[in-house]
Specification:
The chain has 252 residues and is of the alpha/beta class. The chain has one domain: 3-Layer(aba) Sandwich (Carbamate kinase). It contains nine helices and 13 strands. Helix 6 runs parallel beside helix 8.
Length: 252
């Protein structure tokens, strides 16, 4: 059983001191591809595992929700004529595959990890159970949540907000390819500027699209602060957890 160092107090905002003990990290399936068009990119996966290990070594408890877009996207399948519920079920299975791949990478790096799934698959992962997940976290194990919410029509963003609330996370982090939330797509608009901080109401009203509305609303309702940052910047995850200026903070 792994021990924990004391989590370091950080300043989430200039007026809200907060000790980060437990986080929920949302990783997209697309992020696992790195520069590839499909599947997994070994160096990219290794970089993500290294960042997660840095945070675990600080004594922070880490839960992860991973998407499945590198293997299959339910919405895309539905657009091609497949029944949406069937397509979403396939997407859930893709997230379980990604959870297993991430667990394998963490274990190889010496980080204890468990997979819990919202869809029951014997001998692959534990069925999701809140109390069990919390016990794993308190024992120093990273818990990777696969299978989304276990229901069609809900995104893994919503699953992240749900799991974050259920495990009592102090902060939800959405890892993306860009270093925060911008006024417009920075790849298309050179005049786009990054928000350092937003409220949930502002993010919803401006339809910024970095998180779906249901996930934003759930975070707001549960008073679960959010940070959007780039997982491709070395050390970015650690800087976010330590309260340094990284990404965009979304709070009440």
């Amino acid at each position: 059983m792994m021990g924990f160092a004391t989590a370091q107090p950080i300043l989430l905002t200039s007026h809200q001191p907060m000790t980060i003990k437990r986080i929920l990290l949302k990783l997209s399936g697309e992020a696992l591809m790195g520069p590839d068009a499909f599947g997994y990119h070994a160096d990219t996966m290794a970089g993500m595992v290294a960042q997660i290990k840095e945070v675990v070594d600080l004594g922070v408890q880490v839960g992860i929700v991973v998407g499945g877009g590198n293997l299959f996207r339910g919405a895309t399948g539905a657009l091609s004529g497949m029944d949406r519920a069937t397509a979403d079920s396939m997407g859930m299975l893709a997230t379980v595959m990604n959870a297993l791949a991430l667990k394998d990478g963490l274990m190889a790096a010496g980080v204890a990890a468990r997979v819990q799934t919202a869809v029951t698959i014997a001998h692959v992962g534990e069925p999701f159970e809140r109390d069990s997940a919390v016990r794993h976290l308190e024992a120093g194990r990273v818990v990777i949540f696969g299978g989304g919410t276990g229901n069609p029509f809900f995104t893994t963003d919503t699953a992240s907000a749900l799991r974050g609330a259920e495990i009592g996370a102090d902060l939800m982090l959405k890892a993306t390819k860009v270093d925060g939330v911008y006024t417009a797509d920075p790849k298309k608009d050179p005049m786009a500027t990054r928000y350092e901080q937003l409220t949930f109401d502002e993010a919803i009203a401006r339809n910024l699209g970095v998180l779906d509305t249901a996930a934003f609303a759930l975070c707001r309702e549960q008073k679960l602060p959010l940070c959007v940052f780039s997982i491709f910047k070395p050390g970015a995850l650690r800087r976010v957890v330590l309260g340094e200026a990284e990404g965009t903070r979304v709070t009440l």
